[in-house]
UniProtKB/TrEMBL annotation:
Principal place of residence: endoplasmic reticulum
Transmembrane segments: 209-229
Keywords from the named record: Electron transport, Endoplasmic reticulum, Heme, Iron, Membrane, Metal-binding, Microsome, Transmembrane, Transmembrane helix, Transport
Gene Ontology cellular-component annotations: endoplasmic reticulum membrane
A single GO molecular function term of this UniProt record: heme binding
Record flagged with keyword Transport: yes
Family matches, as Gene3D superfamilies: Cytochrome b5-like heme/steroid binding domain
Protein name as annotated: Cytochrome b5 heme-binding domain-containing protein
Chain segments carrying region Disordered: 1-28, 179-199
Family, similarity comment: Belongs to the cytochrome b5 family.
Cellular compartments annotated: Endoplasmic reticulum membrane; Microsome membrane
Matches recorded under Pfam families: Cyt-b5
Topological relation to the membrane, as annotated: Single-pass membrane protein
Length: 235
């Protein structure tokens, strides 16, 4: 009786495709995909997949004791294309939430006062205007003068349009954590009402309407007075 020879582990030579000794199942994080083509589908070649991809393959592939998981490349690509917008949207919302929840002190904001690194505070919100300096209609000097400071008063004095306020909203990087000794803006809810459409404040609009009404009443009184005098002269 000849002695039993010890079997050496299977090792593929360089340039030769590996073959799984078993039924084609996953082993040690490597998917062994049977060769051959399904109708119009290209089988996924032998790959060492990262955990997230391996989990996706598990979801896409049937797993039974009699049929090894065969994963086709176009199937994986189609599912990834469906998941990508979801991941991107969730990532964007998470980043936005993180940015909005960030609090900066006045001392931290004051460090950002150069053209390439310019922060502003408007109504206790912090904005990074670095990318908008060259595009500012009033010139870069206007922004640099209030760089690293509370620019609420300067912003409201100009009376910005709705479009300008939308641009400002896109530059938001956080909120101001105001301390006891920090300078407070002179513009407030009691001093000046926030500007409405077109950049004009509601207070200014109200004064304009009142002045127009006074002129209208004065014109009516003058007209009726003139008519009355004419009728008296005829008599």
């Amino acid at each position: 009786m000849s002695p039993t020879k010890e079997r050496k582990p299977f090792r593929a030579r360089q340039g030769e495709q590996k073959r799984h000794p078993g039924d084609g199942r996953r082993a040690m994080g490597v998917y062994w995909v049977p060769s051959g083509k399904a109708s119009g589908m290209r089988p996924l070649p032998l790959l060492s997949l990262p955990p997230i991809c391996a989990a996706l393959v598990d979801l896409l592939s049937p797993s039974t004791s009699h049929s090894p998981p065969v994963v086709h490349l176009n199937s994986v690509q189609s599912h990834l294309s469906e998941l990508t917008p979801i991941f991107v949207s969730r990532l964007r919302s998470d980043l936005t939430a993180a940015i909005m929840s960030e609090e900066l002190t006045y001392a931290e904001v004051s460090k950002h006062s150069t053209k390439k690194d310019l922060y502003l505070v408007i109504h206790d919100k912090v904005y990074n205007a670095s990318t908008f300096v060259d595009e500012h209609p009033g010139g870069e000097e206007v922004l640099l003068d209030v760089g690293g400071q509370d620019a609420t008063e300067a912003f409201e004095d100009v009376g910005h349009s709705d479009e300008a306020r939308e641009i400002l909203e896109g530059l938001k990087v956080g909120s101001l954590k105001r301390g006891p000794g920090d300078p407070a803006p002179k513009v407030g809810a009691t001093d000046k009402i926030a500007a409405g459409p077109g950049g004009r404040s509601e207070a200014g609009t109200g004064l304009g309407i009142a002045a127009y009404a006074v002129l209208l009443v004065g014109a009516a009184v003058a007209y009726f007075g003139y008519t009355y005098m004419q009728s008296q002269d005829k008599k």
